[in-house]
Amino acid sequence: MDTRNLHTGGISLVGAPNVGKSTLLNRLLGQQLSIVSRKPQTTRNRILGIYNDERGQILLFDTPGYFHGSKALDRYLEEQTLKTCAGVDAVVMLVDARSGLPPQALLDAIEESRVPVVLAINKIDTLDKPRLLPLIDKCSQAFAFREIVPISALTGEGTDELVSAMFRLLPEGEPLYPDDQLSDLPERFFVGEIIRERILHCVHDEVPHGVAVCIDSFHERPDGLVEIDATIVVERDSHKRIVIGQGGKMLRLIGQSARERIEKFLDTRVFLKTFVRVEKNWTHSPARLDELGYSDF
Ligand code: GDP
Ligand code: MG
Q1: I want to staple 66 with a disulfide (CB 3.0 to 4.6 A). Which of 23, 43, 106, 268 is the partner?
Q2: Which ligand is nearest to the CA of 36?
Q3: Ligand 1 centre from 21 Cα, in Å?
Q4: What phi, psi does 14 have (nearest 5°)?
Q5: Is the CB of 113 under 6 A from ligand 1?
Q6: DSSP assignment string, 115-139
């Protein structure tokens, strides 16, 4: 292959919770890698996805939503966002077309890091077209964005233009990973994310985000079946009761729907065992966050 003129580099997706970062990442990669939820803050760890086409390779980082908070988990998420921006060639900042400008604190932090920023105005499928131009205008006055691209991560509108804008900011270089590799994160991480997404989906608003999933063991048998032991960590006894449900009904439901998704993701049969454990205030303890896997890869 002639590798001249190929461009390769890292780009992180940043923005307030719920603007559609995970949806965009999934659309670009064409596979469900990062979890998508209506509730804010579901993406806790950065996820590296790899986009390939004839122009080169983009390493994508999906960051947690940027926001200010007092708890250790909030601080961790914020730090992760800033850290992810430090090592990349460019940043794609997302805003929700309905709410307009990105948070000022985020703009200030990014400006300090001096990385070029492309603004993607997402969810334009929800906006009356005449309102788009004034919004673009307002955004271009708020910050020196390299480019502003209106998109819909949901329908795919504008996402090709966004990818072109990304390639324009990447240095020339050969691909770093083979082009069939979607992500360099271990499968067990995604399995944990799938289970966590299923919990949030099944228990709705009854258990807030103080829920973590540890994959205690991940073992592939010679016949191909994958045995997984997972512990669901919650903050309160009442949350444990909700997650387990009457006679264990809820936990069975969570386990079953998680297993189906994990089987699809791993493309093999899965035997999933789940346990629920209460750990008071784990979201307040930096040491515990670290142990539960919310730290650097
Ligand atoms: P994140 O927190 O930034 O990762 O946001 P998510 O990707 O989890 O998306 C949050 C919500 O917005 C989900 O319900 C998505 O389906 C929805 N969403 C994302 N992109 C679009 C879009 O382009 N149009 C519409 N209408 N909804 C979107
Ligand atoms: Mg997300």
Answers
A1: 106
A2: 1
A3: 7
A4: -125, 165
A5: no
A6: --EEEEEE-GGGS-GGGHHHHHHHH
Please give the single-letter amino acid code of residue 45. N
C-alpha span between 31 and 144 (Å, rounded): 32
Instruction: Tell which atom from ligand 1 comes closest to the C-alpha of 62.
Output: 4
The CA distances from residue 220 to 11, 146, 217, 269, in Å, are 33, 47, 10, 10
**Two tokens, residue 215:** 């994959």
Cβ of residue 99 lying under 6 Å from some atom of ligand 1: no
- In this prediction the pTM is 0.70
Select from 58, 30, 34, 36 the least CA-distant residue to 45. 34
Give the residue whose CA is nearest to atom 24 of ligand 1: 123
Rounded to the nearest angstrom, the distance between the alpha carbon of 33 and the centre of ligand 1 is 14
Atom index in ligand 1 nearest the CA of residue 126 equals 26
Tens of pLDDT along the chain (297 residues) come to 555 689 999 998 888 878 998 889 889 887 656 656 555 555 555 666 888 889 999 988 877 666 666 567 667 666 766 777 777 899 999 999 998 888 777 787 778 778 899 999 999 999 998 999 999 999 999 999 999 999 999 999 999 999 999 999 999 998 887 776 666 666 777 888 889 889 988 987 677 667 888 888 888 888 889 899 999 999 889 999 999 999 999 999 999 999 999 988 887 899 999 999 998 877 766 666 666 655 433
Nearest Cα neighbor of 266 from 198, 192, 196, 202 is: 192
Distance from the alpha carbon of residue 28 to the mean position of ligand 1, in angstroms: 14
Closest CA to 190 of 141, 230, 151: 230
